[in-house]
Amino acid sequence: MGILERKEREKLELKQRILEAAKEIFIKEGFDKASIRAIADKIEYSPATIYLHYKDKDELFYAVHELGFDKLSEMTRPVESIEDGFQQLRMRGLIYLKFAFENPELYDLMFIKDAPMHALKKQEAGWDCGMHNFVALQKNLALCIEQGSVLPADIDVLSMSIWSYVHGLVSLNIRGRFEPFCELNPEIQLEKLIGESLDFMLNLIKKKNE
Length: 210
Hints:
This protein has 2 domains: 1-54, Homeodomain-like (Arc Repressor Mutant, subunit A, Orthogonal Bundle); 63-205, Tetracycline Repressor, domain 2 (Orthogonal Bundle). Helices cover 75% and strands 0% of the residues. It has helices at residues 3-29, 36-43, 47-51, 57-76, 85-102, 104-111, 115-123, 128-147, 155-174, 179-184, 190-205. The longest helix is centred in the first third of the chain and has 27 residues, at 3-29. It is globular. The termini are far apart.
């Protein structure tokens, strides 16, 4: 391996260390505590080194939020082999919920916090990682309509409605808004309730046999 190749490899390895450190601090201590200086201390480099790779905190956490989308895509990829469109749709929803419940901090960064969107505005770029998942949902719904399992509708409207519904369930949960409700109704199992809420939504768009 030549000197240039070795330097490029070391550069990529350092960039990965920065990302992993940012992700770890963010998950353990929250976004506000995940400062450039804290991340630099974690990897035992100066803050100036991080700025060689990322312009600011927004750009760094855009990269962290891309890691979240990589993980979500990895989890949902197997459902694309399910030939029944409606079953694929249901499994896609359940996996989305599972990802959010197991990775609430990442989900918060991916879909709620402003930092990644601030980075996009500065770069004047598109939200490619987010749109990739949205397009996968659109294709799934198009398959459902083609197979006759979902009522015909505008794909954009249908996709946005389903995504917004499931995102609402997740957001209420990870922000603790379901807790008072569950305290008043101790017999309710939260995950079961949310799963059944997903099925309720999907049944609304399901085409009934004549």
